[in-house]
Design brief:
2 domains, FAD/NAD(P)-binding domain, alpha+beta, binds flavin-adenine dinucleotide, five-stranded parallel sheet
Length: 408
């Protein structure tokens, strides 16, 4: 029976392993860490946003240019299929008010437990503390607790992850052992802001129900003030263009709308009430429920002396500019951009220069915002790579070329 080596025990590798084992193949998953699925468990700390319920066109558009080649894989394994799969593991899902989809358990551990039990039933072998260190001709080279080992397999699925949160296992070291790799960059990460000491005092506090605009794109949601700057959903949604702008021009100026549900006139009307000796902070709190954090953000953006005139003050609330001066690194980014380039792969996700070797998951060169888009594509490409391997194993090798002759 064909032997399949799956390298990397994250969701992409485990999902490929499940599909291949169901087809009756001998599957071994090799994982460098003492246990599999560490990043999945970390994602579970935020509730495990598995996928998103928006319509397919809007969903696919989240992947930018990569949507073109990811699309067939997402069509073959769409969000409904991921939800059904989770349900099959005893983890029903629900759709939150933002359209994001979560397991009702709001964590990953029960899902991973049930999944590993299923894989064991299917006969999948999992070898932990086996670190793949590259190729020895056609064979795979590993460092194991017992020393160096080489392994031969009929097909290989590489599912080594990207390069964010390296302490969870995906350190991106594999990029040195293969060609055609786009450099890793942080994605869905925090940004630096040169806060005043007053604003630093607000670290850990959220800005809720705000809108953030950059280069004409507005996103609604939340942000979190940190000591170094800002992070959170609205920053993640714009993290790719913001990162690229900061790399190109050393900074990027975003604009906050602290009351996106109200028009500027409405805001001005509320502000146009008698102040009767109150401080501006109190006036903003009473008329618009602006928190001390929001008022200080306005001062940070527009200077200490905010305008008194209602229309001008309203304008500061509807557009508070803030300069982002740097990008937080891969160590704490939710995901990474970069990885194995599309040109290195055929449409079945097989490496063009290494037949019978397939790749899946975050190690491929695509990026997406948070919202369930990362896991959905991780699963979809895991399945695509497994199907690619199955099709390849089912295809008889081409007949040997006829011997060359001197005749014309
Ligand atoms: C804090 C956080 C929260 C997140 N929340 C969400 C969320 O809510 N929704 C969402 O969609 N996504 C979320 N993500 C992203 C999501 O977890 C990843 O996109 C997903 O885990 C990628 O799966 P993968 O299998 O491709 O890679 P990984 O999960 O990174 O798995 C790769 C595996 O390969 C192993 N490996 C690496 N190199 C080797 C080697 N040389 N030899 C052997 N094994 C190796 C690693 O140890 C790892 O176990 C979150 C990520 C983080 C960090």
């Amino acid at each position: 029976m064909p032997e399949i080596a799956v390298i990397g025990g994250g969701p992409a590798g485990l999902f490929a392993a499940e599909h291949l084992a169901r087809a009756g193949l001998n599957v071994t998953v090799y994982e460098r860490m003492p246990s599999v699925g560490r990043k999945l468990l970390m994602a579970g700390r935020g509730g495990l946003n598995l996928t998103h319920s928006e319509d397919f066109e809007a969903f696919a558009a989240r992947y930018g240019e990569a949507a073109r080649w990811l699309r067939p894989h997402l069509e073959a394994f769409p969000p409904e299929a991921l939800r059904a799969w989770a349900e099959g593991l005893g983890q029903p899902t629900f759709t939150g008010s933002s359209g994001r989809v979560f397991p009702t358990a709001l964590k990953a551990s029960p899902l991973l437990r049930a999944w590993l039990a299923r894989l064991a039933d299917l006969g999948v072998t999992i070898r932990t503390r086996w670190r793949w260190t590259g190729w020895d001709g056609e064979a795979l080279r590993f460092e194991t607790p017992e020393g160096g080992v080489t392994v031969r397999a009929d097909a290989v699925i590489l599912a080594l992850g990207g390069a964010s949160w390296p302490r969870l296992g995906s350190d991106g070291a594999w990029a040195g052992w293969t060609s055609h790799v786009a450099p890793f960059r942080p994605a869905n990460m925090g940004f630096d802001v040169a806060w005043s000491p007053v604003m630093q005092g607000f670290a850990g506090q959220p800005l809720k129900g705000i809108a953030l605009t950059f280069e004409g794109r507005a996103v609604r949601g939340e942000a979190m003030v940190t000591r170094y700057g800002l992070e959170g959903g609205v920053l993640y949604a714009l993290s790719a263009p913001l990162r690229d702008a900061i790399v190109a021009r050393a900074s990027a100026t975003v604009s906050f709308d602290l009351r996106p549900d109200m028009g500027a006139d409405d805001v001005a009307r509320r502000l146009d009430r008698p102040r009767s000796g109150q401080s501006l902070s109190n006036h903003l709190r009473k008329t618009l429920k602006l928190s001390p954090l929001e008022t200080n953000l306005l001062r940070e953006a527009h200077g200490k002396d905010l305008p008194a005139e209602p229309a001008a003050l309203a304008a500061t609330i509807k557009a508070a500019p803030l300069r982002l001066t740097g990008v937080q690194g891969l160590a704490r980014a939710i995901s990474s951009a970069g990885g194995l380039r599309l040109e290195a792969l055929d449409e079945t996700l097989m490496l063009k220069d290494r037949p019978d070797v397939f790749a899946a998951g975050e190690m491929l060169d695509w990026e997406a915002p948070t919202g369930g888009y990362l896991l959905q594509t991780t699963f979809a490409t895991g399945l695509a790579a497994a199907k690619g391997a199955l099709a390849r194993l089912a295809t008889p090798p081409p007949p040997p070329a006829p011997p060359a002759t001197d005749r014309p």
